[in-house]
Amino acid sequence: MLKHSKKIAVAGGGSWATANIKMLADNIIEKEIFWWMRNGDAAEYIRNYGHNPNYLSSVEIKIPAQNISTDLKTTIKAADFVLLNVPAAFLKEALQGVEPADLEGKYIVSAIKGIVPDENKIIAEFMHDTFRVPLQNILVISGPCHAEEVALEKLSYLTIASQNVELATEFAGMLNTRYIKTVVSDDIYGTEYGAVLKNVYAIASGICHGVGYGDNFQSVLISNAIRELERFVAVVHPIDRDIKESAYLGDLLVTAYSQFSRNRTFGNMIGKGYTVKSAQLEMNMIAEGYYAVNCLHQVNKQYQVEMPICEAVYAILYKKSSPVFEMQKLAEKLS
Ligand SMILES: NC(=O)C1=CN([C@@H]2O[C@H](COP(=O)(O)OP(=O)(O)OC[C@H]3O[C@@H](n4cnc5c(N)ncnc54)[C@H](OP(=O)(O)O)[C@@H]3O)[C@@H](O)[C@H]2O)C=CC1
Ligand SMILES: O=C(CO)COP(=O)(O)O
């Protein structure tokens, strides 16, 4: 029996938001789902036809038309759980006009895998510091799970992290379905930073492929990436964690190897000689790692962790350094 109310608002109109709506609606626990997106035409289309025209358009949307809105404050007001699913780079913009009082008493669930630019904070920290949301009311959804495979109902595992493990367990219960299994964790920092870093490593993986390295090199890159990830999270939030768990290693592997990965696709284009702008235009989807690597570069000035893969990606994307040169330099540092 759930102790908390079952009114959930999903904020964001992209692929992962659409997949989250599907998982929540397919789960058998009775609940009311509300959906906010910025795109009025898409909202109207979904109300009329029950499908998102722009992302995962095959997914049937099974929530009432009147629960789909372009007014975020109204959507938030209706719910007890607010699931944030706007790319981190645009979160501040999306939350403009929302006051700490609007979120008082609400549970905030971040399904975002990114860092808030300028603030250089993971989502839990940002929501806690800016909107005064108690950490006990914050949850993070992560895990090796692509929206496209949720749409196909392929068996997937999610990690629900919160310092409030009881709350995480309750929320996990609202996501479980025939094709979704959930794991609960109390490591919000490791889960968030792990997800942010794996996006950068997937870009590195794509760049390597783009410049012509093969599977042999990529496996070395990824085994170095998990060690780099472990070093960083151990300094930022030192607790006893097993980096081989799905939320860390699993998430890295799926993003670095999958045909569906936005970050890998973006990296591949960069490796093949596209500029950042042209790769972004061509993709029409968001590669969070592009924004994250800049934030990580700033954050790591404080921690000084040895992060050669992140630094190579940063130099390529933000200093216009040549992908071939940076990968040759990186290759000398890997083991
Ligand atoms: N896709 C996946 O499999 C997974 C994604 N995630 C995370 O979910 C989050 C959302 O990603 P995802 O759903 O994949 O994104 P998509 O690339 O599918 O969609 C992009 C989303 O970003 C919005 N957007 C683009 N530009 C802007 C802008 N300038 N201002 C505000 N909103 C903008 C789009 O809105 P519009 O349509 O109106 O342009 C759309 O909702 C990311 O943090 C990602 O890392 C996490 C796990 C899995
Ligand atoms: O986080 C994700 C899957 O776990 C989505 O990012 P990618 O599309 O780059 O894999």
Automatic annotation (TrEMBL):
Sn-glycerol 3-phosphate binds at residues 113, 143, 198, 251, 261-263. Residues 187-323 form the Glycerol-3-phosphate dehydrogenase NAD-dependent C-terminal domain. It catalyses: sn-glycerol 3-phosphate + NADP(+) = dihydroxyacetone phosphate + NADPH + H(+); sn-glycerol 3-phosphate + NAD(+) = dihydroxyacetone phosphate + NADH + H(+). Its EC number is 1.1.1.94. Residues 7-167 form the Glycerol-3-phosphate dehydrogenase NAD-dependent N-terminal domain. GO terms for molecular function: glycerol-3-phosphate dehydrogenase [NAD(P)+] activity. It comes from the Bacteria. Keywords: Cytoplasm, Lipid biosynthesis, Lipid metabolism, NAD, NADP, Nucleotide-binding, Oxidoreductase, Phospholipid biosynthesis, Phospholipid metabolism. InterPro entries: 6-PGluconate_DH-like_C_sf (IPR008927), 6PGD_dom2 (IPR013328), G3P_DH_NAD-dep (IPR006168), G3P_DH_NAD-dep_C (IPR006109), G3P_DH_NAD-dep_N (IPR011128), NAD(P)-bd_dom_sf (IPR036291). It is an enzyme of class 1 (oxidoreductase). The active site is at residue 198. Pathway: Membrane lipid metabolism; glycerophospholipid metabolism. NADPH binds at residues 15-16, 38, 55, 113, 147, 262, 286, 288. It holds the Pfam family NAD_Gly3P_dh_C. This is Glycerol-3-phosphate dehydrogenase [NAD(P)+]. The lineage of its organism: Bacteria, Pseudomonadati, Bacteroidota, Sphingobacteriia, Sphingobacteriales. The gene is gpsA.
